[in-house]
Amino acid sequence: MMPQANDFREECDVVAELLAPMSDVDFKRPTGFKAWTINHIMQHLHFFNVMADLSVHDEPRFVREYGEMRAARKTHGETLIDATDRLMEGLKGRALFEEWRAYYPSMCDRFAVADPKKRVKWAGPDMSVRSSITARLMETWSHTQAIYDLLGEDRISGDRIKNICVMGINTFDWTFINRDEPVPEGKPYVRLTAPSGALWEWNEASNTNRIEGPAEGFCQVVTQTRNIDDTDLTVIGDVANRWMAVAQCFAGPPQTPPAPGTRRKA
Fold this sequence. Notes:
Layout: H1 3-19, H2 38-57, H3 59-74, H4 80-87, H5 93-112, E1 119-120, E2 127-128, H6 129-151, H7 162-170, H8 172-178, E3 189-193, E4 199-202, E5 210-214, H9 215-222, E6 234-236, H10 238-246
Parallel strand pairs: 3-5
Antiparallel strand pairs: 1-2, 3-4, 5-6
């Protein structure tokens, strides 16, 4: 059994509790993430959950259906949210929530018994099945932060966010390569406090090139849901500071992190 599949299920369960009381009107509210509404966020998450599932269990259908998304954006100039809305036939509000909630448990069951090392197709380079479900956890956690912020709710993260920390650590080189910058020598020492209070450490210990603080803050920075200045992380050294200024653990062209104070709880 692949533990990342259960971690993803638990994250979705927590989000489901947050969204369960909402009305159709609530889903229309814009968030602090590019003014996406809750509808936009949940359409995005559900569409790519389905795509990830298909990439593992029905590759020809994935190639066909994701090809429609790619064509809509590249050939017809549709935005990501417009293309997603059209391909989902305008599914929104409570109906969208119920379909998302009904889908992810069986998806997790299928991922749990899949070969974690199997390579599958994706929007960018091929990835392992383990990386695929970890990416779904990362996207669900990061995108729904905008909903927590909109509602003024404090998020209580579990130690499952270690998966996101690992993604952040593993994409150190890629963050710079993706921006056409030379990869700095000497990866920073990272020492994070887990939600449970456990300590997680990566790379060689250093007092001059280090990042230290809450694991949740590190996850917020590498997923670009917070500016580094809006976290409680301590960052020491030129390499560590440059990394935290542009860190990006998700695929796609380089993105600019939010400006200080622009992504926060209402």
